[in-house]
Amino acid sequence: MSTKLLSPQKKLILQQGTVIPAHPLALNASRKLDEAHQRQLTQYYLASGAGGVAVGVHSTQFAIRDPEVNLYESVLALAAEEVAKSGIQDRFISVAGICGDTAQAVQEAKIALSHGYDMGLLSMGGLQDKTEAEILDRTRAIAEIMPVFGFYLQPSVGGRIFSYDFWLQFADIENVLAIKAAPFNRYQTLDMVRAVCHSKRNEEITLYTGNDDNIVADLLTKYEFEIDGQQVSKRFEGGLLGHWAVWTQAAVRLFEEVKACRNAGYKDVAALLTKGVAVTDMNAAIFDPSHAFHGCIPGIHEVLRRQGLLEGIWCLDPNEKLSAGQAEEISRVCKAYPELVDDEFVKSFLTKTITA
Hints:
Blueprint lengths: L7 H9 L2 E3 L13 H14 L3 E4 L16 H15 L6 E6 L3 H13 L4 E4 L9 H12 L4 E6 L10 H8 L4 E7 L3 H13 L7 E4 L5 H6 L1 E6 L2 E12 L6 H16 L5 H19 L8 H12 L18 H11 L6 H13 L1
Parallel strand pairs: 1-9, 2-3, 3-4, 4-5, 5-6, 6-7, 7-9
Antiparallel strand pairs: 8-9
Helix pairs in contact: 2-3, 2-9, 2-13, 4-5, 6-7, 10-12
């Protein structure tokens, strides 16, 4: 199998930065795949103006890979079919979540390739028994198959903390084109960015925020280091976020504001930073950090259910439910920050979908 490379057009979209929602899983009351709503979610992200979508990731529920569930290829196929129907697949980045040890990750990469996916978001979750060297070898194996989107996953949902040296070697791997920083931690984020800046491939790697607790500030911050007498800088060009699985059209609007601010020499940045605090408040309601993120996926589902994009908030694990007070928190933030929700857009989208 020859190594898949990202097309020049898609590489430019990736490098310029875009909105990539992390695709949820639509289930019915029997906790079986709800194909109609699964397809509708992909259509919603396409209609919202997102520049890509990530499928088979944490928001899609890692349990889709369990033998008794066996939905990994199904959800990848459904999203790929909707992207193909859209007519914009040449300017839309399809990202497949890839998990497990090297053998599993290689198999998932091959499945993703067979459905036309552009990149693999390589999860570091569940690898606590592996050394950093072994995880780097795993990354090289996937990079020989398809472009890699690195993923610094926070420990509270199965990730682990990596060293500066790990990220330096990670960035040096050919066909690693992007890294999503989602440790939800400033120190760990800084370690990763500093390592990328010191890599000989620093210009070939695009950073995306996955820090749902710090989205706007991440997108506005420039990291700068003096390396061998030269100033080397990086910033998060876009985001691949579970938060952007909801209120996506509003997220696209906000991202355009951020890009306009950056392009205008950071004019009116104070107002955007204040808006960023509102985004974090909204994220806290969805992601449920006060209960160790237990209600994270049901929180995403609840927003989509209220808008009519999902039938219910069912998860593969019956114990995954909204935490006490979480529904009320979601109501509070929706009322407090109406400019950051997209209810009217969704109403119009659903009307068009039903009548089409």
